[in-house]
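Recap from last week: sequence in, structure out.
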Amino acid sequence: MIFEKHYTKKDLEEVFDEGFKLPEGFLFGVANAGFQVEGGFNGKGEPVNNWAILERAGKVEPSGEAVRFWTDYQKHIELAKNIGLNGFRMSIEWARVQPSFTIKGREKPPFDDAAVERYAEIIASVMKEGMEPVITLLHFTHPLWLSVDLWTDYHKIIYFEEYVREITQRINGLLIEKHGLRPVKFWLTMNEPNGLAFITYLLMQFPHEKSGLKTAISAWDNMIAAHCKAYDAVHDVYRKNGWEEPMVSYNTIHLSLYFTDKVMTDLLNARVNGISRNEIGSYLKRGKAAWDEEISRSPEIVKPNPVFAKLEKLIDRVTEKVIDPDTFPKGIQALYSSPDERKLDYLGVDFYDPFLKHMIALPSSKDLAEKRFNFNSELWEQVLNPRAFYHFLKAETFNCETLPIYILESGMCYRIRGNTFEPRYDGATMDKFLQCYIFEVMRAVKDDLPIKSYFYWTMVDNYEWGSYEPRFGLFYADRSKTPVEISDKDASGTDAAGAYRDIIAALRSGNREKIIDVFLR
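Predicted structure tokens:
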């Protein structure tokens, strides 16, 4: 399969007709996460998070200096500004602002004033360059003093709630008093909890001590409860300070099956939809039916292995039976005991290859030669299916008709093994990727879906959870240099950032000829 543009000039003319208009305030951005870009974790004298034990044991590649966002953030922000972005997603690393420096310590440490002030300084710089910050409060990692398996212990959620309350108060206070700016508008309580629970405890690819399906679902239940409490905490801080009401959500990773994807969103929106606790079961069944109908319209780009396709269907049937209202008792209790029926101010969505049947793979001869014995496809092997993007965006709106959609991650990657670039199996390049996926976003906009942003993952090649081989960056990070050097092209030598810049400029211009031209290049 060769990845090519899936649209024609006629398609472009139909979408970008004389009536087309980019939504007011539409955000074009990039996204990153602290542990993946900052550097300075898990080494001697550095803050330790839940990845420290694996790194120190040599079981994963150390994160090391990453791409030096913590020290060189101004260079990164300048790169983003030059693309013409007006959105910038980043995270606050809990392990840095409330740090411990030993893998054995389990007592709650104090907050680090200097680290909190540095985050406020970074966010202020983003704002001053005309970009809207979208701040993730927990992007997969947590301080090791809470143990590796934080999310399996409901009683530790209180620490997350306290952290959220403290950091939103202090960051915004600094933005106002020290930098003369306004509070942060957009918050994400946590990144992809549906993915984190299953990747950690079922696939066992993230740090863990426990495992199994029951553990994964219990952890996810605790994350749902934690989101509810964090949502309330952020709103409470803003209300007490008299600040303009914030926009708070979480972001889901699309996994195609209703009960591994949309179920959390529908649960969190149940009270707003007037659903009582005893109606949740039937409400979720209706949600699944609507979801399945729309997702089934997604075209197949490659023919999946028939065994894996059947396995996907089996997982769907099993999860439908296993996951019901009784599966999330703590999450539902937190939702219905809250004084605020709202738990989502917008829908945060991430889109890569969403189909489980593509994610399962037998080790190839190359995998075996490289001593990789996992049974999943690698990130650089993901199937690129922009047509499916539209259907997932539409499916998000079911049960959530009043909420705007913010696309907060969408990306593709190459592979760098050693210092050697490996072309993708489908020949895809990031410029074509951006054209195809942003076209589908604009098609959804044309059809009146409430899309308010597109954020690419990520701006600079980062640390991809134990490895630097996957390269998602618009800019290539040359790790053969010390310190790491950032190129003006991506890993393939493509001017991906330039392509993104040109697409953004054309869409903002409103000039139909320019828009059609930039998508045909």
